[in-house]
Design brief:
The complex is a heterodimer.
Chain A: H1 2-27, E1 33-39, E2 44-46, E3 52-54, E4 62-68, H2 75-88, H3 92-95, E5 98-104, H4 112-122, E6 127-129, H5 133-142, E7 147-151, E8 158-163, E9 165-169, E10 174-180, H6 185-196
Parallel strand pairs in A: 4-5, 5-6
Antiparallel strand pairs in A: 1-10, 2-3, 4-9, 7-8, 9-10
Chain B: H1 2-6, E1 9-15, E2 22-31, E3 37-43, E4 47-63, E5 66-75, E6 79-81, E7 86-89, E8 94-101, E9 110-117, E10 122-128
Antiparallel strand pairs in B: 1-2, 2-7, 2-8, 3-6, 3-9, 4-5, 4-8, 9-10
The chains are: A alpha+beta, B mainly beta.
Chain lengths: 197, 134
């Protein structure tokens, strides 16, 4: 009995690399757009409480990034409500390992105090980030965040056209998956959980 | 109820999200008659102004060769409802943008909105504030 067990163990051991490969192929299955894993561009911005937030300090946690602006009535709050839904599907232990971060593309109108009131509408545990243009521009470049000011009315001032991507950064700090802002919450949640391992 | 059933234009399923300064209103507009009608304005006592907007997909660049979605928004003068048809105001499409809220909108509350149509029809709706994405 013990012999056959050892034989079995040997067989399993010799198969391990192949099985490992299969396991990797399985874990890399996402509902969103799968990216070639690369270190996510590190940045330090200011959060809604006026404190510095550095991406590299989040190592060990998954970070969900979204870029928008608080004067946006449609796409941004829909996405933020969606991410709040995603967050609610997580267990408390999982939630402790996930940070949802909203980065403004409109720093002129989104100082920390404005971001705080906005973030609190969705989930006070979310992070709202702003900075100077010199701090934000390299972040927009690194994450390919297309954004453009478009003329509005006297009431709106101006509007922003902007990317609607949701970025999933794994606990090792690698950018792994992109989601569209219209993707269903369960699809995003499934990838968020997959990346938590 | 009878007047609602006979009305040429009705508004159903209106909703909004919690907001501090800028808010949204979505709804479905029904034209129950045989001539097209058009929504030309919205008013509400809870905001400084209200505008009709449309969000449209636009090209937003790419990452690792993968196209990235982006959205733009623009003001529209009117939202046409076809005869015996509907026009839907929904996330990522037509919507009412409320600017300069006089008070924050909290989930579970309601506020009054008046929809103004080109033919002079006025429809008043009590809009619920809901914690939902779509």
């Amino acid at each position: 009995m013990s012999l056959s067990f050892r034989a079995l163990a040997r067989t399993a051991f010799s198969l391990a690399p192949a099985l490992g490969l299969a396991a990797c192929a399985h874990t890399a299955h996402f509902t969103g757009t799968t990216l070639t894993p690369k270190p996510a561009y590190d940045f330090t911005l200011t959060d809604q409480n006026g404190r510095p937030f550095r991406l590299a300090d989040q190592r060990g946690r998954e970070v969900i990034l979204f870029f928008g602006y608080t004067h946006c009535p449609d796409v941004c709050p829909a996405t933020m409500a969606q991410l709040a839904r995603v967050d609610r599907t997580l267990t408390p232990a999982q939630r402790a390992r996930v940070r949802v971060a909203f980065v403004t593309v409109d720093p002129q109108r989104d100082p920390p105090a404005v971001l705080k009131r906005y973030i609190d509408l969705f989930d006070p545990s979310f992070v709202g980030l702003t900075g100077t243009e010199a701090q934000l521009d390299p972040v927009f470049d690194a994450y390919h965040v297309w954004h453009q000011r478009i003329p509005g009315t006297n009431a709106t001032g101006y509007l922003m056209a902007h990317s609607g991507s949701v970025y999933l950064i794994d606990p090792a700090g690698r950018l792994r998956v992109l989601h569209d802002w219209t993707d269903p919450a369960p699809a995003i949640a499934s990838d968020v959980k997959e990346l938590l391992g | 109820m009878i007047s609602l059933l006979l009305a040429a234009v009705t508004v159903t399923g209106a909703w909004s999200r919690p907001a501090v300064d800028t808010a949204v209103v979505y709804a479905t507009l029904h034209d129950n008659g045989s001539h097209a009608v058009a929504l030309v304005g919205v008013s509400t006592p809870i905001a400084h102004s209200a505008e009709l907007h449309e969000s449209t997909p636009t090209s937003g660049g790419s990452m690792q060769g993968m196209a990235m979605p982006a959205m733009a928004m623009h003001l529209v003068a009117r939202i046409v409802v076809p005869p015996h048809g509907t026009a839907v105001l929904r996330p990522g499409g037509y919507h009412v943008m409320l600017l300069g809220l006089r008070r924050p909108l909290a989930a579970g509350t309601r506020f009054p909105v008046t929809f103004h149509f080109a033919d002079g029809t006025v429809v008043q709706v009590s809009v619920p504030v809901e914690n939902r994405a779509f």
